[in-house]
Write a structure and sequence with these properties.
Elements: E1 12-18, E2 27-33, E3 40-49, H1 52-59, E4 74-82, E5 94-97, H2 107-110, E6 136-138, E7 143-144, E8 156-160, E9 164-167, H3 173-176, H4 182-193, E10 201-205, H5 209-220, E11 225-230, H6 234-240, E12 246-249, H7 258-265, E13 272-275, H8 280-289, E14 296-299, H9 313-319, E15 322-325, H10 333-345, E16 355-360, H11 364-373, E17 378-382
Helix pairs in contact: 4-5, 7-8
GO cellular component, one term: cytosol
Cofactor: Zn(2+)
Domain Alcohol dehydrogenase-like N-terminal: 38-168
């Protein structure tokens, strides 16, 4: 049992990796984690996996980048104590935190058409979603800011109940944590957002971990052809593990555009295209690579603030294609994460192949180095191992 009379309702002193300055190594310090407020849960983090979004906001010098902050948002943990009015979980439950809320009460959460909660909309906030305040302070009593409603680079953290999904404790934590963000986003984009059909053709722009997760989702949906586009030819061999059947080197198209190459390969365009890099120009290329009449382009990559996608209005009207974005792959965390975990235990969903490195908490900065160097897909950070 995680909770006890020694800690329940009281602050916990523990270690956290703090981003004190943008782009500088995280500093492991002792901090205080306040007890949960009503509808909040304090959890002990078992492990986290490092996501590219952590690196992006670690480097960011202007708001919504902010310091000092506890980063981390892909994780799995155990409930230590619960605040008032929490009935969904109890002390000792295994849980996955997510950046996307799923309150189960608003119009959107009740609808099958959306996963965008209205009560607690997604934002890159330095606070808890319900009260706009922090649960972290350093030993001087100064506030430490939250990240994506999770902040998992701490031995203990506080998460709103709308951002927690209860899972089975039988699934290895260094696999279940992957469904807290990246793998769920990619698989969900193919499965829920695009609704990829069996026998279809899929093109994925960018074979990082999100793009490979899209490939995995498309494979599970029965896509006949999965074309990966990247400037690194080594990604093709890696992509084959997740169902990629063809490869296009984006740096080696000669005098043709990417969309011209793909249109020729697919005899008129792909059924589904996914932009997983975060470049407005690639969104345009992906849209141009889709088949007229029914082609869908799903945007998953995050471009810099202020970037604009420009599409000819003539093409929008006359080609009948669809362009849409997807947060968390269109998944509803509380209902869809358990489905994906079951598919993993049934040996359908590949998760093992995403974990390329594992480090101890004290070596967390090594995880950042590995991801920045392009040496890994997912590096799991163990809090106590």
């Amino acid at each position: 049992m995680e909770g006890s009379t020694q800690t329940t309702g009281k602050p916990i002193r523990c270690k956290a990796a703090i981003c004190r300055e943008p782009g500088q190594p995280l500093v492991i310090e002792e901090i205080f984690v306040a007890p949960p407020m009503p509808r909040e849960v304090r959890i002990r983090i078992i492990c986290s996996s490092l996501c590219q979004s952590d690196v992006t906001f670690w480097k960011m010098k202007e708001f919504p980048g902010i310091c000092p902050r506890i980063l981390g948002h892909e994780a799995v943990g155990v409930v230590e104590s619960v605040g008032e009015d929490v009935n969904e979980v109890v002390e000792g439950d295994r849980v996955i935190p997510t950046f996307l809320s799923d309150c189960g009460e608003c119009f959107d959460c009740k609808s099958k058409k959306s996963n965008l909660c209205s009560n607690f909309p997604f934002k890159v906030s330095p606070w808890m979603p319900r009260y706009e305040s922090t649960r972290f302070t350093d030993l001087k009593g100064d506030p430490l800011y939250h990240f994506l409603f999770v902040s998992s680079f701490s031995e203990y953290t506080v998460v709103d109940i709308s951002n927690l999904t209860k899972i089975s404790s039988e699934i290895p934590p260094n696999r279940s944590c992957l469904l807290s963000c990246g793998v769920s986003t990619g698989v969900g984009a193919a499965w829920r957002t695009a609704e990829v059909e069996a026998g279809s053709t899929v093109v994925i722009f960018g074979l990082g971990s999100i793009g490979l997760a899209v490939a995995e989702g498309a494979r599970l949906c029965g896509a006949a052809r999965i074309i990966g586009v990247d400037v690194n030819p080594d990604k093709f061999e890696l992509g084959k593990k997740f169902g990629v059947t063809d490869f296009v080197n984006g740096a080696n198209c000669g005098d043709k555009s990417l969309s011209q190459v793909i249109m020729k390969m697919t005899d008129g365009g792909a059924d589904y295209c996914f932009e997983c890099v975060g470049l407005a120009s690639l969104v345009q290329e992906a849209y141009a690579s889709c088949r007229k009449g029914w082609g869908k382009t799903v945007v998953l990559g995050v471009d810099k603030p202020g970037s604009e996608v420009r599409l000819p209005s003539f093409d929008i009207l006359h080609t009948g294609k669809c362009l849409l974005g997807a947060l968390f792959g269109g998944l509803k965390p509380k209902s869809d994460i358990p489905i994906l975990l079951k598919r993993y235990t049934d040996k359908e969903l590949h998760l093992d192949e995403f974990v390329t490195h594992e480090v101890k908490f004290e070596d967390i900065n090594k995880a950042f180095d590995l991801l920045i160097e392009g040496s890994c897909l997912r590096c799991v950070i163990w809090m106590d191992k």
